[in-house]
Amino acid sequence: MSGHDIIVIGASAGGVEALVKVVRGLPADLPAAVFVVLHIPPHSPSLLPVILSRAGPLPAVHPTDDTKIARGSIYIAPPDHHMLLEQDHICVVRGPKENRHRPAVDPTLRSAALTYGPRVIGVILTGALDDGTAGLLAVKRRGGIAVVQAPQDALYPSMPHNAIEYVDVDYIVPLSKMASLLKRLVNEKIVDEAAYSVPQDMNNEVSAAAMDRNASNEHEHIGIPSVYSCPECGGVLWEIQDHSLLRFRCRVGHAFTSETMQAQQDEALEEALWTALKTLEESASLTQRLLQQAYQRGHEQLGRRLEEKLHQTERRIAVLMSVFQKKEEDISSETPVQ
To answer: pLDDT tens across 97-143, in order?
Structure first.
């Protein structure tokens, strides 16, 4: 095959509308297979194959494990499963989450780059945070093409912004021009695949996503132990410097970019604060009850100690409430993306 016949598209928030616009402009005789990864809830039925099949001339399906790859078809990662590309077929696996998602964009892009090298076109559309950036770096390392939706055109520009920041992107275009660009690129001749070697670290990471347990012993070859623990399983995270992008992966395969890691820590901190608030309120309620009993029984000294403890607890509750109030004010003051 002489053209770029493997197209991998990743999207998150706002992605359904964006994907509809892209596939609507693709021809029925597209000489390429299209692979779509959209962040979706793990236990919700996905109507995306029906939506995309109706939007354009190409049939769209959720593949099963070992589905043969055919040109002119759209393959969509099933809920709660990664979609990995192997030679001429698809591997569907419930592997470790990446960037807190399953399916995630990075494993599909990385496996496509590993298997098909320069034949791959990686596309990043609207979405929050930065899933897809590391996968797009892998596509470029293997001689593929990187395409990103123009951030000002995206409903949620974080994924496009991060891809542009860390990857030497080949094309930045609005959705209105995406389909015509892809139609042109699939017919361009690819460079010699032999010019792009297969990095061992890329092979190890794809194996980890595929739940190859032998890959868990190879993490020392792709990074160094960090001082952080995995938010998913509590294991040690290995630090990976992927060009200028800092990433982390644990022994069992959970993976995070630094931005996603920070977001996860913020969520863990907020959860801890809510737990602390609940505990303090329960403590205040119990102290109030004991205080009433102490005065009813004439235990003045005990009552004064309980009063002081109650005041301390109420002050701590007030501090936490002010933190949550400030957080709400910060959220409400943010300008929504138009």
So the answer is: 999 999 999 999 999 999 999 999 999 999 999 999 999 999 999 99
Q: Which of 107, 112, 33, 115 is nearest to 74 (CA)?
A: 33
What pTM, to 2 d.p., does this model score? Answer: 0.84
Tell me if residue 39 is catalytic.
Answer: yes
Strand partners, 19: none
Q: Which residue among the candidates 4, 5, 39, 81 is catalytic per the annotation?
A: 39
44 is catalytic: no
- Between strands 89-93 and 67-68, the pairing is antiparallel
Catalytic residue among 12, 73, 111, 207: 12
Query: Which CATH number is 6-195 given?
Result: 3.40.50.180
Q: What gap in Å lies between CA 334 and CA 118, rounded to an integer?
A: 41
Residues 71 and 177: their CA atoms lie apart, in Å, by 22
Rounded Cα distance, 22 and 133, in Å: 20
Annotation says 65 is catalytic:
no
In angstroms, rounded to a whole number, what is the distance separating the alpha carbons of residues 124 and 43?
A: 24
Tokens of 117: 């090298």
User: pLDDT of 52-63, one tens digit each?
Assistant: 999 999 999 999
Q: Which of 5, 106, 130, 131 is catalytic?
A: 131
Degrees to nearest 5, angle at CA 102 with 96 and 117: 85
What residues contact 133, with CB distance under 8 A and at least 6 apart?
Answer: 106, 124, 159, 162, 163, 165, 166, 167, 245, 257
